[in-house]
Structure formats: C-alpha cells, structure tokens
C-alpha cells in the first residue's frame, strides 16, 4: 500500500511548528519525554499497517448488515478496537484517574491522522467510544463512571451519541424523546433516534448510548434537554452482569454513499416501555454537557476531511509520478516517450491544491488541539487558560468546516488526476470521494456552523475571541516580515485580516439593526472567508519555520527540499486560494438581498 | 416520481429565447410546424415516464455483469432503445436520406434533457448509437452506410466509440491499435481499447464499434490515425446474415462509482487475428472524422452535467418545501411549529445556485445547438453559416466543461440540502452525485478542454471566433441597457467582457514569447473565467426575454412569477457567481509561476 500520510510532516508540525516538547514542562504532561510521542505514532503505524489498511476496501464492499435485529460489521473492526484498547490508546488523552495516559491531544490527533488515512470508517468506533466515556467522566456520577466509563476506556464496550431524531435533524430544540422518572431514580426512555453511528454492531458485549431526551414536563427548547446513559444491556438484579435486554431496538440501518463500514442506525428506545436510562449530571443541562462531546467530535470531523484528503493526495501523487501521458507543452516531439503527468502544470496545480488543503487543514486542527493542551497544562480554571479556551471555542467551528468542505474538493481533484481510472473501483479514489462527502454534514452541517461562527462566535464577550486570534496572527505577520521571501505574503495576510475585520464590522452593523435574516443570510460565505484567512495564517506559520530551518541549518538535499516545498505550497495557497477572499468580501458587503424573503416570497420554478 | 425538469423552462428557452419557430422558415426544416416540436417533447415524456424513471434506481443497484465473455445489462435498456427506435427518435436530427427526420438539434437536446434527467445512464446507449451512425453517414462508403448505419438509426443495432487505450488516455497521438491491410481491401484490427461505454451488452444482435487505429507503417502522432467500422459480428460469406464472430473480446468490465447502468468495457480486438475492420473514408484522416462524433458527444456530456443537476435541483427543492426544521432567524418562538427549510436563507442560496447552474448551463448548450441548426438551415458550405460554425467550434469546449464542472457542484449542493438523508440510498441524491462525477472526465477532461480553449479556440483565425461571440454578447448588453432593472447587470457584464479581453491579451503576449508552459499553466482557470462570463451572458439574455414578457403581456400570477424568478436568478448569478471572475483574473495576470518547473523540479513531499 502506498503512503497515505507524511510522517515527516507530522514531525514538522508537532516538533518544529508547535514544539510539543514544551508541553512536557507542564506538570500535567511531565511524565512524557518527546521520544514517547514518537512511540505513540510508531505504535499507531503498526495498527494501521496490520489492521486498518487491509480492511479499507473490503469493509466498503461488504457493508454492515442488519439481520434479525442485530448488526454485523466487518470482522476487522473488532481487531482494531481491541488493538487500540490493548495499547491504551482509546482514551489516551484522559486523565490518569479516568484510566487515561494524559497524552497531549495534539499527539493523539497525529495518531488519528495515521489511522484515519488508512481507514476512516473504523476510526469512528474508537472516537465515539472515547467521547462517550469522556462525557460520563466529566458530568456523570461515580457509579456511572465505574459501571460504564471504565469499560469504554478499555474498549471492552463501545459508545454512541444519540442526538438526531427524525423530526429534528439540525434543530436540537425540537428533540422529543422522553424520559419518564421512575421511583428508583432511573428513567424510562421512549423515542426514536436516527443516524446513530456505530449504534449497533457485534464487536462488543455492550453498547453505551449517550442519549438526549426531555424529562416529562421539561421546558420547551434546548433548556429542557437532559442527558442519559442508556446501555444496550443493563445490569441484572444483583448488578453482577450486564445481560438484561434494555429495549433498544435496531429499527433500521441506513445504506450510505460512503463510510459504509460504520453502520448508521435508526434506533427505537422503549418500544416495550422497558428501556432504562440513567441521568448524567443535572436535569435540563444535557445539551450543555453534550456540547463537550460534540466539540470533540467536530474537531474529529475536521480530521476526517483532512485524513481522507491526505490519503487521496498521496494516491494521486503516486499515480501522477508513474503515469506517462502526453508531452510537455514546450516539447511536442512525437519521437520522444510520453512524459509523466506530474510534469503537466495542470496536474501540478491539482496536486499542490491537495497538498495545500491537507497540510493547511491539519495545521489548523493541530493548532486547536494544541490550545486544548495548553488548557490542560495551565489548568482549565486558571486565568492563563482563558484566552486558549476562547480561541478554541471560536475556531472549533472553523476547524470542523474548512477541512470538511475543502477535503471534499481536494479528494475530488485527486480523483480528477486519475482521469477515467479514478472513477473506477480499481483505484481507491472513488471510495475516498464517497467517504469524505459526509464530512460537511456530520456534527452540524456547514450551514449550521456558519450561523454559529457569525451569529455567536465572533460576537460573544464583545468579540474577545477574534481579537485574541487576530493578535496571534499579527505575531506571525511580524515574524514573517523579517524574511525577505516571506514579507510579500505577510503583507497579503495583513491586508486580508483588515478586510475580514471590515466585513465583520459591516455585518455587525446589520445585526445591530436587529435584522438577523439579513445579518446571517450569507453566513456560509463568511465562514469560507474566515476559513481561508485562518489557513493562510497557518501556512505563513509553517513557512516561517521552514525558512528558519533553511537559513540556520546545514541541511541535506532531502531535508532542504522538504522545507522548500513548504514555502512553495504556502505561496501556492496565497496565489490561488487567498485571492478568493475578494469575491467573498464583495458579496458579504453587497446589500442586495437575494435569499431573504421581504415583500414577497421568492418563487422557485 | 417528482418533477425532474421544467417543461415550462424548456418552452421558454425554445420558443421565447431561441424562437425555434423561425427555424421552420429554412427549407431544411420546412416540414415542421412549431406544434410538432411540442409533440416530440410529449412523446419523450411518455418514454421517460414509462421506462426511464422506473429503472433509474434499480439499474444502479443491479449493475451490468460480464458473464462468460458476454455483458448482461438491465432489461429496461432494451425497452428504452426499442421505444426510441420505434418513435424514430434515435437519429431524429439526421437528414431524410439518412433515415432521419431533420429535427432541429435544439429540440432534440430538449428531448435529451427530459430523458437524461429521468435516467442519465440509459441515454448513453442511444447517444452513442446516433453518433456512430452519423460518423458513417458523414464519411463512410455507401456500402458501410447501407450495411451498418441504417441499422443503427432504427436501434436494431447499437454503436460505440473506441478511442482510449491503456497507454493513451487523453493523448490520442499515442494510440497504437493497429490495422493490417488485407488483399480484399479490409483490415485486420489488433489492439486494446478501454473505457468503452456500451461496448458490450445483450440488448441488440450486433454492436458497431467505431475504432481509431493506425494502419501498419502510418506516420506517428495524430496524422497516422484512421477510422474503422469493426462490428461485433460480421457478415457471413454470402452477406445475408451477420453471424460471424468478429473476434472482439470483452476482456473486462469496469466497476464504476456511478452511471453504473452503462457498462464501461475493456475490449480486445483481434486476439485470434480474426477481427475485421472496414476503413471509413480515407486513411490517416480518422481523427478529424472522429472529431465530429467527439464534438457531438462533448455537447452531450455538457447535457449530462445539466440534466443530472436538474433532477437533483428539483429533488432538493421538493424536499426543502416539505421538510420542517428549525425556525426563522427573526422568529425563534419555540411555541410555533418548525418552519420549512426552504425558508432558511442558506437553503435558498443552495437552491438558487442549483437553479442558476441548471438553467444557465442549459441555455449555453441550447445556444450551441441553435448555432448548429442555423448551420443546417443556411447550409454548411454557405458564407452565412461560417460565423455560426466558428462560434460553435469555440464554445463546444466551454459548453462541455462549464455544465460538467458546475453540475458536479450543483448536485453536491442538492445533496447538502437533504442533510444526512442526502447521504443515504433512501433518496436519489447520492446516486446523482455519483453519476454526475464522471462528466468532467468523459470526452476529454476539464484540463484537456482548457488547453483546447486557450491554446487553440481563442487564437485560431486571428481570434475571429471570440470576436464574433463578443459581438453577440454586446448585442444583448445593448438590449439589456434599455431596461432600468437590467442596466446594472448589463454594465457588470460589459465590465467582465473587458476584463476577459484584457486577460486574454495578457496571456497571448506570453504565448508570443513562445513559452507554452507559462502561457497554458492556468488554462483551467481561464476556462472557468470564460465559462462564468459566457453563462452570465446567457442569463442576461433570459432576463431580457422575461422582462419583455412582464412589460408587454397581461400575465396571470403563475406566469409573471415564472418570469420574475428568471430575473431573480439572473441577479443571483451576477451577485454570487460572476464576482468570482476577479480572483481568476488576478491569478491569470499574476506572473509568479508556481506550477511550471523552471530551474528546479517542484518537490512534492
């Protein structure tokens, strides 16, 4: 199997750009030495190589089946979850007291990059299991922690998140699954949940569903939502075994375009009035708890766009280097052999676009994970951690959306590099294109996140979060200005930052008039603008580190070309992608409303 | 089944914008009255309704199989080809003497819009059959016409075009299939062809392959390529029956991402030295002949992007009108019922984008077909027909590429409107997304067509063709300037036309220096620029006609809202799409080369 990610790039990001060794100075991470981070990635590569890659195609062709109420998944899923559990990697980032290893999340994300590029669908199982466990550890009772979370951490059981209902997709306010209080303090759960990833399977003895439901009589909207642990099997009377069917029925399985190896389930809770749920934390606070898992999952979806795009990039790069076709545009001599397609400018453009998206998206995501680690290191409650928390909250939505949307485009370009072959099952690109397509829908569509960013993220606390982010960006601009080669790009970014601020002010002036429809109508374009500008910053940061290495070190050619390639790709991003901001800004400051009904309804014919 | 195309829009395009009734003044079309065009579309709708729609999903789930060297396709393919043959619609545009009905190609394209939106994969069978027949009628001997073409016209047999070889995808210069001359004037064909659509099936007694091959000893490159008729079964000794196996072997069948109902074959000719081919026209002129069929097929691929996007648009429009979710941004009262998603600005934006792409692409394609009809009407050899031929030659490549590339994007937005449901097999969007993805690859990738447009189309005859096109655009701008509501858009288009000319001059100045690599490096972006500007013109034309109708006619509300919707969508195109030109022009006039190797090779890591 060809290369699907670049270890050299992961090392560059972790060691040179983010300098993760610095994290070990915090007491939270003090048990680590930098070479232990390398070992995590080495172990990951082994799991990817032995289990994940081999099952990528076969688990797509043989998708999960729902037979007699029970889902069967590809047998390698079990091997994968077991290997991850055995290596202590499902919940590696958790605190020691919760069965974790206090691994920096940025290193964990690098591990996910390796696993996801090998088999993106399998990674869902461990991601959801860790997220469920973390939710219980954060907000659940000691009993819930002991009974459920401890067995998720090891991979003995797996978890799922149950939010979406048939009548309430993006609108969680309208969740109607109901929890009826019982005299023993438990609840009877009744309702339908749809699109529940890994919601049923045959790889573990139990599945722990984290379910949003409304306690009978609770207030309308998000303020009346509570969170419950609802296991597939609950404990028997003496609590010794979990073998009582908890009335969670696999009503249906969705046949999906891609990511087929992860079953997406339609689950029915309490069809026989016998589904017991256990309240997590306080009543009516469920959605705020769930946001923790959702935010983790959102970065995970951004990773999904990135690692599938990475696998697609390396597949098309390999193909472009080996596939002869046509001749150079300056040399049409038919006597000569055909040239490799990588030598055609248009193919180079497609490859550079992919590289720019993959490494830019990864950089943005690792930046977020690094902020998360700074929060862990400094202590969540500390004053010093606050700026990181604010930036993380702001950027989670961008770090989910940019890699998802651009990952789809990048994989599409990868397929195009293959020409007709890319459209066939003989190469992995068509599967990757099907797999990656979900990323702009999972965990909140691009539309929802865009409303979030503009309607909430940039305005909260008087715009404190974007101000902090812009300060960070200005630091990079100032540093880049000290290098002649980077100066023009620093200037471009500064200009775009100014443009972004101007556009934001314009939109906020509409919001101030109270017209939310007009204010948010093009939130999607604002997200695109924000994403491009943020990734331009990430590329400048990478170029600075590359430039410093080229100047200060005596490098072998393979190493200097790595850094030169970084600078080249940064330039590509600025010359081909950043320029799109102008059109976005034009539209965002254009006051002609075309998607908002005013006097009359827009007619579609 | 929901609406998949708009008959009202087809009538608008044919009758009001292009005024096809005028064509009946030409002697070539004199047997038609306008209501006969309506009847063609009515008959098409019957075929679509009875055969095509019902088989759309099932022919995807049960894809063609290669069993014992013979391909079996979905049984409804046979019904479809028979119905088309019986209705005389396979070759309806052909001259009477060739078994056709001299139907204007623009009406035929409208028929294809109806069929293709119902079942895009089936349409390939009749399209390839008509193209093969037309090639023989145009360049073949009387014997070939009688023996083969006449039986293609009726749908008794079907045709295929065999260009691509394993070592020569986009590079036809490198075709190596060989034709060995025999003493009886025939040739023995030997070689491999790949991705041959409808290259084998079980719906007809014979398949007539139109094969590009090199006569033994022919010159290198495209100047040594000849065209052959190679039937699956050739005639027996006395010529009474076609029952002699002609050594065309189905070596393999490609499993594709989409358009699964059309088998894509790997064919081996002459494995037993027994594949007889019949030369079409003169030796070594094969590629120029084939260009006729390729150009027809290119417009057909543009239609493919358009009709799949049309079906996706109407599916998502229907869904958006029926799916309640969330509340209006200016009214978050939870006591109220959820609103339909069509009321959210972001969903409206996605729907308007789809509508703008579908109706803009269709307009561009019908413009090209109308030029084709003007050529037929005026007579191909006449002086008056020349401008139309020049514009058609220039724009075929744009009318293939814009609808293909933008059709992919539009279907993608349609899927997004459905959210998670769009990703499942419960709705047709995921299939449409898989189907449409091939359009930017079929009949020359976007990269190849972009080289064609910039490297050849705009420069031929001292740029005569773009000059003619610009004159046409200026006529529309002048007319639009007479309406207050349209004037601002006419001005925008005039500005963009000036920008396009400036960019073109800049690029030609690089070409003048002889550096083809630098000249053509961003041909792909030039194509995008050219396409957006062309479709902006098409939208202005439609808006002018709509505005005239609104001013001069006393309309019922349903009719006035049709026209208002046209003007609204034109505005949407200008405010959201045309603005992208600025970034494209910026890059196209930016002299920093990033995809061309100069001193050193760009390193990808």
Automatic annotation (TrEMBL), chains A, B:
The Acyl-CoA dehydrogenase/oxidase N-terminal domain, residue ranges: 78-156
Where does the record place the Acyl-CoA dehydrogenase/oxidase C-terminal domain? Answer: 284-451
- Pfam families xrefs: Acyl-CoA_dh_1, Acyl-CoA_dh_C, Acyl-CoA_dh_M, Acyl-CoA_dh_N
Arranged from A to Z, the UniProt key words for this protein are:
FAD, Flavoprotein, Oxidoreductase
Using the record, list the residue span of the signal peptide; answer none if the entry has no such feature: none
Q: Which residues form the Acetyl-CoA dehydrogenase-like C-terminal domain?
A: 470-592
- Enumerate the spans annotated as Acyl-CoA oxidase/dehydrogenase middle domain: 160-270
Q: Which domain of life is it from?
A: Bacteria
InterPro entries tied to this protein: Acyl-CoA_dh-like_C_dom, Acyl-CoA_Oxase/DH_mid-dom, Acyl-CoA_Oxase/DH_mid-dom_sf, AcylCo_DH-like_C, AcylCo_DH/oxidase_C, AcylCoA_DH/ox_N, AcylCoA_DH/ox_N_sf, AcylCoA_DH/oxidase_NM_dom_sf
Q: What cofactor does this chain's UniProt record say it requires?
A: FAD
The family assignment reads: Belongs to the acyl-CoA dehydrogenase family.
Stated name of the protein: Acyl-CoA dehydrogenase
Q: Which organism is it from?
A: Arcicella gelida
């Amino acid at each position: 199997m060809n290369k699907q990610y670049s270890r050299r790039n992961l090392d560059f990001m972790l060691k040179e750009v983010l300098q993760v060794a610095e994290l070990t100075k915090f007491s939270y991470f003090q048990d680590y030495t930098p070479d232990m981070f390398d070992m995590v990635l080495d172990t990951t590569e082994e799991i990817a190589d032995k289990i994940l890659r081999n099952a990528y195609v076969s688990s797509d062709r043989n998708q999960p089946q729902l037979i007699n109420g029970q889902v069967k998944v590809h047998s390698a899923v079990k091997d994968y979850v077991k290997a991850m559990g055995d290596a202590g990697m499902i919940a590696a980032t958790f605190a020691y007291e919760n069965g974790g290893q206090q691994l920096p999340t940025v290193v964990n994300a690098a591990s996910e990059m390796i696993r996801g590029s090998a088999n993106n669908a399998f990674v869902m199982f461990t991601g959801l299991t860790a997220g469920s466990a973390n939710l219980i550890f954060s907000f659940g009772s000691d009993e819930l922690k002991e009974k459920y979370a401890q067995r998720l951490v090891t991979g003995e059981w797996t978890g799922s998140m149950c939010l979406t209902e048939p009548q309430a997709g993006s609108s969680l306010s309208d969740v109607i699954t109901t929890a009826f209080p019982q005299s023993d303090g438990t609840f009877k759960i009744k309702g339908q949940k749809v699109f529940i990833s890994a919601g049923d399977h045959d790889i573990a003895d139990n599945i722990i569903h984290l379910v949003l439901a409304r306690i009978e009589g609770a207030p309308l909207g998000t303020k009346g939502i509570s969170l419950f642990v609802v296991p597939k099997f609950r404990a028997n009377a003496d609590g010794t075994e979990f073998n009582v069917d908890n009335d969670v029925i696999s009503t249906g399985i969705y046949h999906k375009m891609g990511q087929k190896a992860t079953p997406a389930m339609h689950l029915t809770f309490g069809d026989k009035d016998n589904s017991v749920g256990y309240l997590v934390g306080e009543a009516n606070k469920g959605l705020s708890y769930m946001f923790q898992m959702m935010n983790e999952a959102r970065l995970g979806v951004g990773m999904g766009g990135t690692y599938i795009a990475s696998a697609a990039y390396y597949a098309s790069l390999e193909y472009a280097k080996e596939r002869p076709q046509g001749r150079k545009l300056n040399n049409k001599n038919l006597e000569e052999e055909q040239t490799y397609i990588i030598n055609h400018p248009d193919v180079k453009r497609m490859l550079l676009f992919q590289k720019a998206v993959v490494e830019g998206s990864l950089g943005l995501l690792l930046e977020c994970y690094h902020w998360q680690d700074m929060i862990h290191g400094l202590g969540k409650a500390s004053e010093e951690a606050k700026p990181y928390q604010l930036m993380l909250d702001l950027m989670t939505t961008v770090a989910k959306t940019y890699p998802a949307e651009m990952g789809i485009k990048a994989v599409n370009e990868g397929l195009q590099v293959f020409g007709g072959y890319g459209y066939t099952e003989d190469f992995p690109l068509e599967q990757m294109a099907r797999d990656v397509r979900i990323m702009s829908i999972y965990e909140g569509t691009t539309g929802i996140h865009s409303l979030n960013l503009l309607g909430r993220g940039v305005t909260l606390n008087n715009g404190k979060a974007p101000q902090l982010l812009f300060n960070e960006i200005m630091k990079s601009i100032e540093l880049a200005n000290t290098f002649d080669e980077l100066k023009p790009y620093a200037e471009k970014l500064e200009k775009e930052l100014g443009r972004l601020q101007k556009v934001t002010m314009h939109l906020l002036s509409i919001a101030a008039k109270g017209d939310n429809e007009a204010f948010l109508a093009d939130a999607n374009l604002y997200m695109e603008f924000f994403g491009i500008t943020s990734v331009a910053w990430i590329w400048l940061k990478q170029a600075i580190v590359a430039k410093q290495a080229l100047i200060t070190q005596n490098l072998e050619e393979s190493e200097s070309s790595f850094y030169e390639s970084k600078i080249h790709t940064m330039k590509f991003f600025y010359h081909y992608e950043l320029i799109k901001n102008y059109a976005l800004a034009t539209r965002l400051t254009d006051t002609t409303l075309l998607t908002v009904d005013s006097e009359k309804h827009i007619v579609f014919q």
